[in-house]
Write a structure and sequence with these properties.
Keywords: Membrane, Transmembrane, Transmembrane helix. The chain is mainly α. Helix content is about 70%, strand content about 5%. The chain has one domain.
């Protein structure tokens, strides 16, 4: 391997490893059932916030279905925020892995440098992207589309009731 002037913590492969091992960002690498149970947990916990707000607009004893749908839609927004945050974190790492040039800082924000990856490092990073990061991004995109479909269905149902 050739010399790499990029600080260790700013090298894309190390950024990837740190992200993949972090408590929050590893959610999406879990098996599907566990991943969706984490998202369900976020949805359930956010009901503690959205249900009282929905209850103020739609009293549960008078308008149970609008109350339930509004609470569910509000909680779905929290899940959407989580999915967006996961996607942005993984997308950033994916972009750094795919690029042939790396922008890095030696000591502070004012001394940015650019380093061109040698072919062997570029190929390694590209493999990591193709086999580790890209499937995660696709899972997040599919999850986002499913959530959007559920939210649109809930909104339509809300307006029909």
């Amino acid at each position: 391997m050739s010399f790499c002037p990029v600080p260790v913590e700013q090298q894309p492969v190390n950024e990837y490893q740190e992200l993949a091992q972090s408590w929050f960002f590893q959610w999406v690498t879990l098996p599907k059932v566990k991943f969706f149970s984490k998202l369900s947990g976020v949805w359930s916990l956010s009901l503690l916030i959205t249900a009282p707000i929905s209850g103020a607009s739609f009293p549960p004893d008078e308008q149970i279905f609008p109350f339930l749908i509004a609470s569910a839609l509000g909680s779905s927004l929290f899940v959407a925020f989580v999915l967006v945050r996961l996607y942005l974190g993984w997308k950033y790492i994916g972009d750094r892995l795919k690029k042939t040039k790396i922008v890095y800082e030696e000591s502070s924000w004012y001394d940015g440098q650019v380093w061109e990856k040698p072919l062997e490092i570029y190929n390694r990073d590209r493999l990591i992207f193709n086999y580790q990061v890209e499937p995660v991004l696709k899972r997040l995109e599919k999850s986002g589309l499913l959530l959007i479909a559920l939210m649109v269905s809930g909104t339509i149902l809300f307006w029909l009731i």
